[in-house]
Amino acid sequence: xxxxxxxxxxxxxxxxxxxxxxxxxxxxxxxxxxxxxxxxxxxxxxxxxxxxxxxxxxxxxxxxxxxxxxxxxxxxxxxxxxxxxxxxxxxxxxxxxxxxxxxxxxxxxxxxxxxxxxxxxxxxxxxxxxxxxxxxxxxxxxxxxxxxxxxxxxxxxxxxxxxxxxxxxxxxxxxxxxxxxxxxxxxxxxxxxxxxxxxxxxxxxxxxxxxxxxxxxxxxxxxxxxxxxxxxxxxxxxxxxxxxxxxxxxxxxxxxxxxxxxxxxxxxxxxxxxxxxxxxxxxxxxxxxxxxxxxxxxxxxxxxxxxxxxxxxxxxxxxxxxxxxxxxxxxxxxxxxxxxxxxxxxxxxxxxxxxxxxxxxxxxxxxxxxxxxxxxxxxxxxxxxxxxxx
Length: 390
Known about the structure:
This protein is an alpha+beta fold. It is built from 5 helices and 17 strands. It has a domain at 158-167 and 178-389. Helix content is 17%, strand content 35%. Strand 3 and strand 4 form a beta hairpin. The N and C termini lie far apart (197 Å).
């Protein structure tokens, strides 16, 4: 019995010893959860080389190379050259290319308008395949015209100013000019009528060479109703007024100036300025101009015929007026009626003065009767021929 008990105890000791050895081996390979959560395993790689010869010592185990370092940061980008203000020719001359290469090689020491496109370290010379960008120098500003190259003639500047303002209506053309045969010097005496009033009037036509003077005076009851003077030259198209003076009863005198050197018409009162067109007449000279036109071409006094000219007053008025032939008519004079050619000058607006004039072919087409009518159509005054003084 005692021997059996010892055998059983020995077997129990062996089994317990085996159990203890099994638990220890499991813990050594890390099967437990705590072991797996612990620090990571370090893995070492042993390089196997050729077996050393008998005389050589066996080399120590070489540890695996450390993990490759992170890549070096990318080099900073080369700033692009600012856009050149002018286009650089695609093909540079040999001399310009040499200058560009020299500038590129010294770019590190001083600023230059030449930038190498390659990001590699700067070579001694740019490779043929590496384009070189050349910043063109700023364009020199175009030479500006001098503020005043040369003083323009006063005539040209005045014509330019006059061209910006015109009395012509939209689409209206300047009137034509006419040939004339002007009368010899003469004084025409008239009877002046204004309603029931009677007075005296006189037209003095005084040509002298290539110049002329023309005067009109009308008086009623010893008071000067109207006084007008026209002075100027006689040219290829007849009268060319230079100054027109107009004075009415109880009003200050006004003047119109025809500046042929500047091609403008100015006035003593208003600041108006008009272009001076060929054939322009003032409100007195037009009567003698009409006489010269009809004397030069009697066909102007036929049915349907018209004559156009610019009429200018002394107070800034200017417009193209049409003288319409109104047929043959008996003109009333201070000594009776005479056959005459009637022309009517209609107004351009309701505010224009209208004129009627009768020319006597027997007296060289001189005016034997003239009437000026106001806006209402009433006669402002009438001139009726009394006599002609050579």
